Amino acid sequence: MDIEDLRTFVEVADAGGVSAAARRLGVSKSIVSRRLFRLEAELGAQLLARTTRGAALTEAGVTFRDHAARVSAEIDLARETILPAGDLRGRLRIAVPLSFGPTHFAPVLADMARHHPHLHIHASYSDRFVDLITEGFDCAIRVGYLQDSNLIARRVGPLYGKLVASPDYIKAHGSPETPDELAAHQSLMQGTEAWQLMDGDKIVTVQPRGRFKADNATALAAAAAAGLGIAWLPDCITYDYVASGALVPIMTRYPPPPAGAYVIRPPGQHPARKIRILTEMLIEHFERNPHLWGLDR
């Protein structure tokens, strides 16, 4: 049995169809179909029932899927064990936040690809919530405050933020001094979120109000610089704006509590070496660029 045939079957089973699995694997649908046909012929059993909506596992497919996934994982572990130190192969499929992934995390991924020429890196940039298991990602980079889940998270660095507004907005509307005064101002938000601020050792929660919303932190920073309102943003987004004077920190007595950047992965006993190396590179990246993340405060 070909290991790629096994991996392809697992991808089709998890993705729910040939087209989705082909996108995940970065190959054509004909190659996926050919691998499935070869595997079913080898087993002498039908693993998938093709439907108009994709592909559904047969009873044999349901039974075989877990075995195939375990075999693939064991082969990956065996390959890692015998590879020369530092040499990575295979594929790393990673979900990265769009807000500052292309500017802050993409250089790390490019550096990883440069040092490991046999490793295929497939990065997906989006600010939406990504289901790692259902969508077939090896890991993800997430920033902010993590919610409880069964995923395994490794913190790679702290993340600081602040409230900011443009000089024009402050000139026209004034600058709030306390959390209670925020209710009288236009706030720039991602949705209906609450803002948490530190009052000494105590956390204060406020409900911001505003007419401008965007699901991307970079867009909110641009809106704040245009004078549309007050934004609660990470320092790595606002650093250049603040340095140039386009945005001004406000309510500095009430900073947001420190958040973090994390590498998260599906549950498993041992992380793949490619995920461990990525994690180490990100930790080093945070340490080398303290001004971007607010570590120099």
Q: How many distinct helices?
A: 11
Q: Which consecutive residue ranges, at least 5 long each, have pLDDT under 50?
A: none
Question: What Rg do the Cα atoms give?
Answer: 23 Å
End-to-end gap: 56 Å
Mean pLDDT, to the nearest integer, reads 87
Layout of secondary structure:
Elements: H1 3-15, H2 18-25, H3 29-43, E1 48-51, E2 54-57, H4 59-82, E3 90-96, H5 101-115, E4 119-125, H6 132-135, E5 139-144, E6 152-159, E7 161-165, H7 167-173, E8 187-189, E9 195-199, E10 202-206, E11 212-213, H8 217-225, E12 230-234, H9 235-244, E13 248-250, E14 259-265, H10 273-288, H11 290-293
Parallel strand pairs: 3-4, 3-5, 8-11, 8-12
Antiparallel strand pairs: 1-2, 5-14, 6-14, 7-12, 7-13, 9-10
Helix pairs in contact: 1-2, 1-3, 1-4, 2-3, 5-10
Characterize the structure shown.
The chain is α/β, with parallel strands linked by helices. It contains eleven helices and 14 strands. It has helices at residues 3-15, 18-25, 29-43, 59-82, 101-115, 132-135, 167-173, 217-225, 235-244, 273-288, 290-293; strands at residues 48-51, 54-57, 90-96, 119-125, 139-144, 152-159, 161-165, 187-189, 195-199, 202-206, 212-213, 230-234, 248-250, 259-265. The chain starts with a helix and ends with a helix.
